[in-house]
Structure formats: structure tokens, C-alpha cells
Amino acid sequence: MKHFILILSFFMFLTGVSAQEFDKYFINKTLRLDYTFSGDHQQQTVYLDQLNQLPQWAGRRHNLSQLHWRGNGQIKVTDVESKECIYMEAFSTLFQEWITIPEAENIKKSFENSFLIPFPKTRVQIEVSLRDRKGNYNTAITHIVDPQDILIKKKGLKNIPAYSVIHQGGQVGGSINVAILAEGYTAAEMDKFRNHAKITCEAIFSHSPFSNLKDKFNFYAIETISEDSGVSVPRGNDWKQTAFSSHFDTFYSDRYLTTSHVKDMHDAIAGIPYAHIIILANTDVYGGGGIFNSYTLTTIGHPDFRPVVVHEFGHSFAGLADEYYYESDVLDNTYTHDVEPWEPNITTLIDFDSKWKSLLAPNTPVPTDIQQASKYSIGVFEGAGYSSKGIYRPAVDCRMKTNFCKDFCPACQQAIEQLVKFYTE
Predict the structure, then answer these.
(1) In whole angstroms, what is the distance from residue 221 CA to residue 255 CA?
(2) Which of 219, 215, 239 is nearest to 227 (CA)?
(3) CA separation (Å) from 290 to 42, 186, 226?
(4) pLDDT in tens, 318-373
(5) Cis, bond preceding 410 (omega within 30 deg of 0)
(6) Above 90 in pLDDT, residue 268?
(7) Side-chain half-sphere of 76: how many Cα atoms within 13 Å?
(8) Three-state secondary structure string covering the chain
(9) What's the mean per-residue pLDDT of the chain?
């Protein structure tokens, strides 16, 4: 009993430390940082666009100065007076995907990106770093934010769209808060949207380990109204007026559905507690996209809606990589084979020790021949990250590989559990 009391006291101490650290440096509001990322495959630049204050903070209050996944980019917040790192976050962007495709060799483009951090009490230094092809993180911009700056816009105080709670696992301050947005739904279609939001939540919770982590999540359905029903399909010369101007044919890939209107998305939900975003597109055309710590965007009318929205949430929330591959895919240059990917569920074997090695049965061959899959349910199977050679995945099939697999593979499940724990404990 004495040992139990000591252990309990220790964990209560750790919880208290987390709360004290947040209250020491931050108030219960959000600082939204809007940037413009621009450049081409050779050179990238980040510019500050706008600073915004949102009414509350709905992100993590634990492990504030640490990163769980490294991401394709990182934000570091340093207290100016003490020089102490007080917050870090990792991210990926559509821009960083774009610079890997052939188009980026011939033209420069710019992309919007917005990031959320807790609102600081005193002056802070913000450093944004981008990951290069060699796996190094290079500072793209450094700037000072004064919380007393009169030009920080206060948003989310009025014109808040109607929203409902789809699932309440806990209080905002201790949960992972996910906003589900309507894209391509007219005002007359909001009953339909609310039903689709419920199905989305049910689909996510039907997969392990989310099924055992319901008390860690809150899901909100936000009724963001579009002028037109449906979304844009450029290859069919079909352009719609929608809330977030999403469209298929991103990077000229038929199925890739994204939006580059990131600020519109964040402005629409500024008054609602959120840290992660799912956008439901009102169309039966197959497709979607998911960007780590940015958003999931997926269609609702296709028969594979349920597995696809879970797959894309695996990208945007959990930072999982695609475990599939095609010959000559538009994104097949995403990963260099001599650098270990940061995503937890694929490897180039450069640093396999940091991945799912602990899950392998004794004497599992690395790499693992696909012909031996019946003997090794968890292995190191070649073909992943859009490449048929040189990149490896943990299982023959997984929710991050096909729509037919019933669940995430054990390595992905472990990664999700670890991330949820990082956010909430």
C-alpha cells in the first residue's frame, strides 16, 4: 500500500507540473499564426501573413516543449526572457508535397498555412523549420510575437456557425478536439451533413485503437454552408462555389482532393474549440487527402467513404504514412531511400530501430519476404510510401494500405496509442 501511495503521489505530481507549466507561460486562448509558404523544388521561403487570437485553447496541455513525431516541419516557441522552449509542434503541408513533383522544377508557387499554439503571456520567439530531402530541419523564419500587439486580430467572437457535439469524451481542456466541417453542402443539406458527421465518428471508433480511446476525443459537427452543392472536379470543367474551394485533381492526380484556402477554413471555426480538422465533401466522386496536423478532406457519397475517412484521419491526426505504392505514381518521389522517414509506419531501414522493431517475433528476417507473410504477421515487407522498392511496411495489409483491410496494422495501432497518450497524459 505504501508503494501504491508513493506511485500515485508521483503521477499526481507530474499532472500538477503539466498544469503549472501551461499556466506559467500561457493563457486559455489560441494564437493562430498565418504564413505563406512559397518557392520551388530548390528553394523554399516562409513569410508571416497575420497573427490572430482565438477565444480558447483546445490543444494539448501536456508535453508542451516536446515532439512526438518530427513531421515535415516544426514550430518552436521560446520565451524571450528566459530563453526556454515552452512549446513545440510538428506539421506537414501541401506545399512540401508539391515541391517533390515535376511541376515544382519549372515554376514557383505559394501556399497558405495556419498553425495553432497556446496564447503566450509574454513575448515569445517563433521559429519555423522545414525538413529537407536529407532529413535536416532548416530554419525558414524566426520572428518575435508580443501578445500585447494591437494588430493581433481577435477572431471567433461573432458569426459562429451552428454546430453540434457528435461525441463528448471529456472536457475540452483534457481531450483531443476534432472539428468536422461541411464542404459542398447547401443550407438545405445540413441534416444530411449532420448524419454524415455521425457516420464519420462511428467509422473512426470502429477501428482499434480508437475504439478503446473514446474518452480521449471530442467531435464537433460544424455547419459551414456552401453556395453550391458538391465540390469542384477540374478535369470535368466542373467548378463549384463552396465554403473552402476544395477540388479534385490536386497535382493532376484524379483522386487527390484538397483545399489551398486554409485561412478560410480556420476563420470559419475560429469560435469553436478544435485542434484537428476533418472536412466532409458532399460528392460521390472517389477521393480525399490527409495532411499531418492540417486537415483530412474526404468524400461522403462513395461506397468506400467509411474506410477512406479513417485512412485520411490516420494521416492528418496520427501522422501515418501511406503503405501502398503504384508504378510511376505522381508522389513516388516523396521519400528519398537513403533517409529514414519520420512517419512511424514505414522505413527505409536506415534507422529501423526507431520504428516497429520491438513488435517483430524473434528471428523475423529483415526485410521479410512477402512469400513468408503467413509465418510473420508483422514483418518488414517491401513496397510502401508510393515506392515499390526501397521502402518497407509492417504488414501485408493495413487501413493505411487498402480500403479492404478491416483495421490498422499492429504498428499503426501502437503509433496511434502512443500519440494519444502524448497528447492527453
Answers:
(1) 25
(2) 239
(3) 25, 24, 21
(4) 999 999 997 655 556 789 999 999 999 999 999 999 999 999 999 999 999 999 99
(5) no
(6) yes
(7) 17
(8) CHHHHHHHHHHHHHHHHHHHHHHHHEEEEEEEEEEEEEECCCCEEEEEEEEEEECCCCCCCCCCCCCCCCCCEEEEEEECCCCCEEEEEEECCHHHHHCCCHHHHCCCEEEEEEEEEEEECCCEEEEEEEECCCCCEEEEEEEEECCCCCCCEECCCCCCCCEEEEEECCCHHHCEEEEEEEECCCHHHHHHHHHHHHHHHHHHHCCCCHHHCHHHEEEEEECCCCCCCCCEEHHHCECCCCCCCCECCHHHCCCECECCCHHHHHHHCCCCCCCEEEEEECCCCCCEEEECCCEEEEECCCCCHHHHHHHHHHHHCCCCCCCCECCCCCCCCCCCCCCCCCCCCCECCCCHHHCCHHHCCCCCCCCCCHHHCCCCCCCCEEEECEEEEEEEECCCCCCCCCCCCCCCCHHHHHHHHHHHHHHHC
(9) 93
pLDDT at 8 over 60: no
What grid cell was written down for 260?
489551398
Cis peptide before 303 (omega within 30 of 0): no
Query: Taking 90 as the threshold, does the pLDDT of residue 14 lie above it?
Result: no
All cell numbers assigned to 200: 464519420
pTM: 0.93
Q: What is the pLDDT of residue 4?
A: 36
Structure confidence at residue 369 (pLDDT) = 97
What's the chain's Rg over C-alpha atoms? 21
**Domain annotation for the chain: domains and CATH numbers:** 22-154 (2.60.40.3250), 163-317 (3.40.390.10)
- Burial environment of residue 423 by CB neighbours within 10 A (0 to 12, 13 to 18, 19 or more): buried
The answer on pLDDT for 12 being more than 80 is no
Grid cell of 221 as nine digits: 459537427
Q: How far apart are CA 196 and CA 223, in angstroms?
A: 12
Grid-cell match 468536422, residue found? 180
Pairing of strands 85-91, 73-79: antiparallel
Rounded Cα gap, residues 73 and 78, in angstroms: 17
Per-residue pLDDT of 246-255, as tens digits, reads 999 999 999 9
The C-alpha atoms of residue 280 and residue 424 are separated, in whole angstroms, by: 26
